[in-house]
Write a sequence for this structure.
């Protein structure tokens, strides 16, 4: 099927060369994904160092498989109605997990997402520009990590692959469908249905994408279609989109338990601690997003200038995309306004905010900018000499692969270095990360031997690996806060707030929280506090980075 992307003028030898370039690009994507997988398994020491979002899926998988081990765990002791942890990533990881090695399954799923990401963006570039070189450039740039406000980013390699990366991998295919549907109204409802089904990939991204696609469709009535037919098509689009959206959100929307004013105050306090810092200062965050200190400003300016060029001089497919971009941007603006209004009005109606994270959809401005920039380069490509094209491609490739500090690039470089002996730039960083992970993994392995199954543990850090590697209940984790909030668990929220307040007293506040919990076992990443712990418990093991203590009488 790759010949579909070859220019119509290419016949015989040129067409075969294009197909060879396509196969080479896909092979490179597969090799990179494989190298990243092998490397991240090594430097994380089997998942001891894991992205906190990914850790929630690993611990959820452990809890689902072994509920008898987590009867005393505040998070895993019951099935959560919060549906944000049920997604394509976790489903794929489940299929790829060997035994109880949940981290391996998640990393394998992540490697698959990385491959699909680069393959998808390459194929999108081939459809838009025809040129394998420009397609490769688009895929490479689309994978660059660009941090946006509200703790989110666009890219593929920044951390361990999380659901937003899975969605970014599928987005070029969704966009291809939307581009095809722009001039073929019968394809619009299926395109909207596909966007809605992606709620099970990453809900925030699916809601933003649905708004983008629908507004682009609604504002563009195909030539020759009557107004009535256009409106009927729009309604049909909304119906097919909202069927999966509402199905996904139903468990949350149907939590009808009536909460007292005191209960609502507890949830509001938790919300303020977990999200208000980011989402309560929308204007300030938006201003910083386009400030001179933000990488978004030059990217957005470049994207806008490129859009002006593409509208006049771009190829047919690129101009079609450029024509949809204003609707895409307007949709993102409207979603931001909705997010702000809903977060402000929700307390007035006696309920908690639901749409505060929708503002994260502004990250889609990044791939839209890259698309326009590469499309503008395509306009001038015929004027460049062969040497100029090679210099451009080589410079961008070298900059992305050698200057990036992202975790997956580091992991891939480590794997390549181990196989070839090459002294790659991030090798020292990888070894340092592995040393820290090895000390943590050693502590977890020893914890599993010292602590009986089912007995809970307290930790001063966000040590969710206690759940998925040591397979022991964990009394408190900062990340648990969002689960209690979305589950509308009043008692869990109160307990979480109590422990969090004690731990915020200072670096040793965790000792007070541990004692208040009544839990016998402590895993601490502060071995320097050994003398402070000895009045309360016995330090049974330490390795320089971690210690394990048991409370006397516990």
């Amino acid at each position: 099927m790759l010949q579909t992307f070859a220019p119509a003028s290419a016949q015989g030898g040129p067409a075969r060369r294009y197909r060879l370039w396509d196969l080479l690009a896909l092979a490179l994507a597969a090799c990179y994904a494989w190298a990243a997988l092998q490397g991240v398994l090594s430097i994380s020491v089997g998942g001891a160092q894991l992205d906190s979002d990914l850790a929630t899926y690993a611990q959820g998988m452990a809890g689902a498989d072994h509920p008898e081990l987590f009867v005393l765990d505040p998070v895993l002791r019951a099935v959560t109605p919060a549906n944000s942890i049920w997604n394509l990533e976790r489903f794929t990881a489940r299929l790829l997990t060997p035994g109880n090695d949940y981290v391996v399954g998640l990393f394998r799923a992540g490697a698959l997402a990385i491959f699909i990401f680069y393959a998808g963006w390459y194929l999108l570039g081939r459809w838009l520009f025809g040129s394998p070189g420009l397609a490769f450039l688009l895929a490479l740039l689309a994978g660059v990590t660009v941090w946006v406000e509200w703790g989110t980013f666009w890219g593929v390699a920044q951390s361990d692959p999380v659901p937003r990366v899975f969605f970014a991998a599928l987005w070029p295919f969704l966009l291809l469908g939307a581009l095809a549907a722009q001039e073929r109204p019968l394809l619009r409802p299926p395109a909207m249905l596909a966007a809605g089904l992606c709620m099970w990939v990453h809900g925030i991204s699916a809601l933003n994408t649905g708004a983008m696609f629908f507004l682009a469709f609604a504002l563009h009535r195909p030539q020759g279609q009557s107004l009535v037919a256009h409106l009927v098509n729009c309604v049909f689009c909304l119906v097919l989109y909202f069927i999966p959206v509402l199905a996904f959100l139903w468990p949350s929307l149907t939590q009808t338990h009536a909460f007292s004013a005191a209960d609502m105050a507890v949830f509001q306090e938790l919300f303020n601690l977990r999200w208000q810092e980011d989402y309560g200062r929308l204007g300030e965050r938006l201003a910083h997003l386009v400030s001179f200190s933000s990488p978004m400003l030059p990217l957005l300016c470049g994207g806008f200038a490129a859009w002006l060029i593409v509208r006049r001089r771009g190829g047919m497919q690129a101009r079609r995309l450029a024509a949809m971009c204003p609707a895409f941007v307007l949709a993102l603006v409207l979603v931001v306004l909705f997010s702000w209004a809903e977060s402000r009005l929700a307390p007035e109606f006696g309920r908690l905010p639901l749409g505060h994270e929708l503002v994260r959809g502004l990250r889609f401005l990044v791939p839209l900018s890259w698309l326009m920039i590469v499309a503008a380069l395509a306009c001038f490509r015929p004027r460049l000499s062969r040497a100029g094209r090679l210099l451009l491609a080589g410079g961008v490739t070298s900059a992305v692969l050698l200057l990036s500090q992202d975790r997956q690039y580091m992991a891939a470089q480590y794997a390549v270095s181990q196989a070839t002996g090459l002294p790659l730039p991030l090798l020292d960083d990888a070894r340092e990360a592995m040393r820290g992970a090895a000390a943590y993994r050693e502590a977890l392995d020893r914890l599993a031997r010292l602590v009986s199954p089912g007995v809970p543990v307290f930790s001063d850090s966000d040590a969710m690996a206690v759940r998925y590697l040591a397979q022991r209940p964990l009394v408190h984790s900062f990340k648990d806060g969002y689960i209690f909030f979305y589950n509308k668990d009043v008692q869990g929220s109160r307990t979480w707030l109590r422990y969090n307040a004690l731990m915020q007293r200072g670096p040793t506040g965790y000792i007070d929280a541990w004692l208040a919990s009544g839990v016998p076992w402590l895993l601490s990443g502060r071995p320097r506090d050994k003398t402070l712990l000895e009045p309360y418990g016995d330090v049974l093991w330490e390795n320089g980075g971690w210690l394990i203590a048991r409370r006397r009488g516990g």
